[in-house]
Specification:
alpha/beta, Rossmann fold, 8-stranded mixed β-sheet, 2 domains, 9-stranded mixed β-sheet, single chain
């Protein structure tokens, strides 16, 4: 048995469910009805915007935004000046920005909102970004460039780009980005130098993506130039799989449910016929526009405004906002916000770039200011006012009913391995029988995988008492473990799915298949889960079984979370996460600063519908909890657990008591 377990652990993990997830993503995107005419685009726009607003959740923050902006200093240069601006987004969250203005301008100016993508150390002072703003200011534009959370004078902290707790309240990471963009736009529009009818937006990478999002939602953005941030989403998902989507170091692209209603094409249709120039690079495989360019040309031609859509490919400089890309953007903004030129690239000329760390550019002369504490504080405040409305297990939160290929042929051996097909994914299982005819079936879901069943004290006692024990390796565990956990969580979120629900579906499919066999159909069924992942998935499965069967007589959850709100209350982990770093390229990719709540554990906007105690309360089975943990992965006291759990669930302090409650009264 030990040799077999080691051999299985050494084997390469199955890719079946990764393939299945990618197929579902592609099918979802391919099923979207695409607007082809001005009338279709206009008809689709309100619902697309409504769904995108919901997926971002940015209007759950103080709305409408009223940023309190002030100028903290001015830097004067030849032909332009920089106002150093600080505005407040969320309460206590200060955002630094640079407003570039032509020197001596007397008329209201066209303006560009510049969103800095994920250039953590330099952000708004990155030389390429400075060059854009300087040239545009000398050309007669106002340019407002600000530091996103975790970057520049607010960082370095990649953690601020992946604060998964906000998902519980219906705010996605891009929702934070969009909210601060809206605050910055409000500040820009408040300036007397700015013409509110001539506002453009641009940015590279995450800034290009945010340009798409903001322009698709807000008609005040009259011209959009997304740079190195445009993808046909299926191509991006496929490319990102090989690198585990950069280990999900940044979550800004992971908008919940987005690919169920929009590809990049739909974002373009929401903007049309306002002018858009897409700038990408042939040497940047993470961002491939695919069919978007042909679609854009056809859609704008249908509007009778073909000249308002453009595509520029920079074949030389890869990812970023390098000079050739900037020159393409200059020409486009000159044409569509000033009426100068024909929209083709305009040469840059020399620019006087300051060192990125120049003291004169600092908006916070007293040091950097972390955004994390304010972001987390707002989420906790928002969560405190949310109460679940029920029902306990709404169908939209559970994966589609699993398709079981066939009832397994059980052969009566003391140990039998078999698999059950669940929507094309083979789910491996191990059945351990007692001596003699079984008295019941104990489902044992373990984070350590089914091959550790025989070594567990609870499962050993179950077999001694005459119970068969069924272990299942659901996707992500045991034989189905993955080195693509970040990609899996990201694509699941984009697809409006929840990976742990899929794990629960795997469990139930196998249990239903075994329980339907003649040997087990009339026997009692009990459920035992050990480990935070297994306990969470089992909580879903137990609640769903109460709704659609099979009937469970008793269950026990060990070493797991008992409330989603524990993901919010993490004093030790959060304090560590607020630490700012000087350089974080290596740490953000390869090192965990603290024990994160796994990305795939967190369903979107779930607290408005149910919490884990609601799921347990929905089951008529006798429930027991042992050694529950908190958001800092520490064991909580039985008294603390009882406060969180419904009255129908008992809290015990010893394994033997758990066994007695689980197996003595089937």
């Amino acid at each position: 048995m030990i040799a077999l377990a080691l051999a299985l652990l050494a084997a390469a993990p199955s890719q079946d469910y990764l393939d299945e997830l990618e197929r579902r993503a592609e099918q979802s995107l391919s099923s979207i009805h695409r607007a082809r005419t001005p009338e279709e685009a206009a008809a689709a726009r309100p619902e697309l915007r409504r769904r995108l607003e919901h997926a971002l959740g940015y209007k759950k923050m103080p709305w409408p935004p009223k940023p309190k902006g002030r100028v903290t200093g001015t830097v004067r240069r030849a032909g332009y000046r920089i106002d150093k601006v600080v505005f407040e987004s969320l309460p206590g969250v200060a955002v630094p920005g640079h407003l570039y203005l032509p020197e001596g301008a007397t008329a209201r100016l066209p303006a560009i909102l510049f969103y800095n993508g994920h250039w953590y150390e330099e952000s708004k002072t990155l030389p390429d970004h400075q060059a854009f703003a300087i040239h545009m200011a000398r050309s007669g534009f106002a340019v407002f460039s600000f530091d996103p959370f975790g970057q520049g004078e607010r960082g370095v902290s990649t953690r601020d780009h992946r604060r998964v707790s906000s998902l519980l309240t219906g705010i996605s990471q891009q929702g934070f980005a969009e909210y601060e963009t809206q605050c910055a736009l409000e500040y820009l529009l408040s300036r007397p130098e700015v013409d509110p009818q001539r506002i453009g937006m641009t940015g590279a990478s995450g800034g290009g993506y945010n340009t798409w999002i903001t322009a698709s939602l807000d008609d005040r953005i009259r011209v959009a130039v997304p740079v190195a941030g445009t993808s046909q989403f299926a191509l991006q998902i496929n490319f990102a799989r090989q690198g585990d989507w950069y280990h999900a170091a940044e979550h800004c692209h992971f908008v919940p449910g987005l690919i169920t209603f929009a590809d990049n094409h739909e974002l373009l249709a929401m903007i049309a016929p306002r002018p858009v120039l897409v700038i990408n690079s042939a040497t940047d495989p993470g961002f491939v526009a695919g069919t978007l360019t042909d679609y854009g040309r056809d859609l704008y031609a249908a509007h009778g405004m073909a000249a308002r859509f453009g595509y520029f490919n920079d074949p030389t400089s890869g990812h970023g906002y390098q000079q050739r890309k900037r020159e393409a953007a200059y020409g486009w903004f000159l044409r569509h916000l000033m009426g100068r030129g024909d929209g083709s690239p305009s040469p840059e000329g020399p620019v006087d770039i300051a060192p990125p760390d120049a003291a004169e550019l600092r908006c916070f002369p007293d040091g950097k200011r972390a955004a994390g504490p304010g972001m987390e504080a707002y989420v906790r405040t928002l969560a405190a006012g949310i109460r679940a409305r029920g029902p306990a297990v709404p169908s939209r939160f559970f994966a589609s009913e699993p398709a079981v290929a066939a009832t397994p042929a059980l052969n009566g051996q003391s140990e039998q391995r078999f698999a059950v097909a669940v929507n094309g994914v083979s789910i491996p299982a191990l059945l351990l029988r007692p001596q003699g005819a079984p008295k019941g079936l104990l489902v044992a879901a373990l984070d350590t995988g089914k091959e550790t069943l025989a070594a567990g004290a609870v499962t050993r006692q179950a077999r001694k008492r005459g119970w068969s024990v069924l272990g299942i390796d659901v996707r992500g565990i045991g034989e189905l473990r993955t080195d693509k956990a970040a990609w899996t969580a990201a694509v699941s979120l984009l697809a409006g799915d929840h990976f742990v629900w899929r794990q629960a579906g795997d469990m139930l499919a196998v249990v239903r298949a075994v329980h339907a066999t003649p040997e087990y159909a009339r026997l009692p069924l009990a459920w035992y889960a050990r480990g935070d992942n297994a306990a969470l998935a089992s909580t879903y499965a137990i609640a769903e079984a109460a709704r659609k069967g099979p009937s469970i007589s008793a269950y026990a959850l060990r070493e797991g979370f008992v409330s989603f709100r524990q993901f919010l209350d993490r004093p030790v982990a959060n304090e560590a996460s607020y630490r700012l770093l000087e350089k974080d390229e290596r740490e953000r990719r390869f090192t965990a600063w603290d024990r994160e709540i796994p990305f795939w554990y967190v369903p979107f906007d779930v607290l408005r519908v149910f919490d884990l105690p609601d799921l347990l309360a929905a089951s008529p089975a006798s429930g027991t909890v042992l050694h529950a943990i908190d958001g800092d992965w520490k064991r909580i006291s039985p008294a603390a657990a009882r406060l969180l759990l419904p009255r129908t669930v008992s809290v015990v302090e010893a394994e033997q008591e758990l066994v007695e409650r689980l197996l003595s009264n089937p």
